[in-house]
Amino acid sequence: MDKMDDIPAERRAEILATRLERSERALRGAEAALEKRMKELFRANQDLSLRQSELARKLEIESALLLGALSTIRMATLYGERERGFTMSESAGPILGLADGEEPTIEKLAATLHPLDRDRIMRVGLAFFSEAEPGVAHAYEHRIVRQDTGETRWLRWSITRETGTEDRPGHLMATMRDITEERQNERGVRALQLRAERRVRELAHLQLELAGAKDRVEEALSARNRFISEMAHAIRTPLAALSGGLELLRSKVRMDGEKDLSVAREAAEQLGELASRLIEEAASDGEAEPVAYASGVGTPTPETASTLPDQPRILLAEDTESNRYVAERMLVDLGCLVTSVENGAAAVEAIRRQSFDLVLMDVMMPIMNGEQATQAIRGLSGPAARTPIIGVTAHSLQSERERLLSAGMTACMAKPVKKEALETAIRTALISGRDVRQNQARFDHDLFRRTFTDLPDAYRDRMRDAAKKDITKYAGEVLTAVEADDEEDLSRAAHALTGVSLNIGAVGIVEELAHYREARALGEASIEAFREAVAACLLAVDDLYEALIARDQ
User: Residue 175: how many CB atoms within 10 A of its CB?
Assistant: First the structure.
């Protein structure tokens, strides 16, 4: 008995409906693939027509002359026997430039021979009669001078000598054709070929020059970026120490010194803003708009005194002594247990030896910079590889932020760092790394926060629910397209999912999807990492929303 008979009718209907839907989906996929193939063939035909038109334009001179020659071609015949002599067709008269009605003869032909060719043709003619193999067509070319206009023309002969038989005496047959236009066409075509070859050589030379210019520009941009990076570090590092020191002094200055401290803090902030504008303008050519990292400007601060876990263990990696002192004091004031190191290599070694809740990593350090240290930490085995890492950089540009996040950092902060912003960054980094693996649940916290804080309070919950629903929907469409091996549906679904994910800063989904599509093009694709990233990010949305949005409403 069929197994389907054992299944309830409603369930059988669902199974059959599912199979029908799958078949219809496969049919739609096949139709879409066929339509895509037809479009490709249509485009290929269009490209072929375009190339044919282009070739016709390039050979316009050759085509025009060749068509003209074919439309006005003139040909004559010649027949000769030893006893009867030679007879030429009437069409030879116009070729030789004879007067109307004048009979063409071999003597008149000889009279039109060009002086430069006369002796040669005479010698060739004698050799032909004495040496040429019978029954084989022989070709000759020579010039004539027309009797009527004095114009020089080129003739081509095809001559065959036949030996005599009992039925027919030995004879000669020949065709004569004016090939002046054909020779001109050949010279025109050859000229076009030479011109094209010269142009190809010129283009190849230009390509080499462009490649060299591109390399020089890239080297110049790289040197410029290194200079800007070093300048930003040199300017913002002491500013960070100055601003942090003033922040620390705020709680210790007595009433009569508050005004003096306020003046100093205001001057430091103005100096910091001026330095930021100068650095950003210097780096603005071809760069995206500067973005505000987690810093004192535009960052929501918690209303409660401290919401950090009890005494989180923080590893501080900072090479500048003044900045390290200020950061240590801020972290201690926030209730953290701090371990300090002076470079990235020491940070990696400390992570190997000891467990930390979070790493506060300066980006520009000797021996091993913050980006290299982050990559080394992410390459470790066990829980240490998932330790949240907050980068502290002298830059505030989107390209810098994207590079550091791609290296494995959980979040980024721009110098100078304020205490309130540092607390918020630590809190959110600990939240995002609490239950979900860091390399899967990757979020741009600043973008996540702005997405919701730009909305009225009444719409924020709805925005979160809609984002989760849309990510689920479009991720499902991506997986369906992968299963059906439908590149067009995959491209459409990936575009929609990327837009929705970036709306809330879910960069982990976007990165895994991009990695999958790159690997798919090479035939080495696995969709599992993308599937896990979607699940992890969906699980992390509510935690991040609670930490960054709900508590500040």
Answer: 15
Selection from 415, 443, 431, 456 nearest residue 297 by Cα: 415
Convert the pLDDT of each residue in 382-402 to its tens digit. Answer: 888 889 999 988 765 666 777
Evaluate whether 430 touches 357 at the Cβ level (below 8 Å): yes
Lowest-pLDDT range of 172-186, 219-233, 238-252: 238-252
Instruction: Answer whether 0.90 is exceeded by the pTM.
Output: no
275-301: per-residue pLDDT in tens? 666 666 665 554 444 443 333 333 333
DSSP conformation letters of 144-208: EE-TTT--EEEEEEEEEEE---SSS--EEEEEEEE-HHHHHHHHHHHHHHHHHHHHHHHHHHHHH
| Four-way CATH pick for 68-178: 3.20.20.80, 3.30.450.20, 3.30.300.180, 1.20.120.80 | 3.30.450.20
Residue that is written with structure tokens 């462009």 in the block? 210
Q: What is the 3-state secondary structure (H, E, C) of 203-215?
A: HHHHHHHHHHHHH
Kindly give the residue spans of alpha helices, DSSP state H, lying in 434-506.
Answer: 445-453, 457-484, 487-503
Query: Cβ(489)–Cβ(481) under 8 Å?
Result: yes
The sign of the CA dihedral 217, 236, 390, 349 is: positive
What is the torsional sign of CA 174, 177, 182, 184?
positive
How far apart CA 208 and CA 227 sit, in angstroms, is: 28
Q: According to the 3-state scheme, what is the secondary structure of 314-352?
A: EEEECCCHHHHHHHHHHHHHCCCEEEEECCHHHHHHHHH
Please state, in angstroms and as integers, the Cα–Cα distance from residue 306 to each residue in 11, 37, 317, 423, following that order. 55, 62, 23, 8
What are the residues whose beta carbons fall under 8 Å from the beta carbon of 352, sequence distance 6 or more? 380, 384
Whether the predicted pLDDT of 432 surpasses 70: no
Handedness of CA 372, 547, 460, 496 (dihedral sign): positive
Radius of gyration (Cα) for the chain, nearest Å? Answer: 43
Angle between helix 445-453 and 528-548 (nearest 10)? 50
In this structure, the chain runs to a length of: 553
Residues whose CB falls within 8 Å of the CB of residue 57, separated by 6 or more in sequence, listed in order: none
Helix (H) or strand (E) holding 279: helix 258-282
Domains 68-178 and 195-282 share a fold: no
Look at residue 527 in the predicted model and tell me its pLDDT. 87
| CA-to-CA dists, residue 197 to 54, 183, 200, 201, 456, angstroms | 16, 21, 5, 6, 67
Around Cβ 186, how many Cβ atoms within 10 Å? Answer: 14
Please state, as a whole number, how many other Cβ atoms lie within 10 Å of the Cβ of residue 215: 10
User: Does the domain spanning 195-282 belong to CATH 3.40.50?
Assistant: no
C-alpha dist (Å) from residue 551 to 209, 427, 430, 543:
59, 12, 15, 11
- In three state form, how does the secondary structure of 5-60 look? HHCCHHHHHHHHHHHHHHHHHHHHHHHHHHHHHHHHHHHHHHHHHHHHHHHHHHCH
The domain ranges of the chain are 68-178, 195-282, 441-553
C-alpha triplet 223, 227, 233: angle, nearest 5°: 145
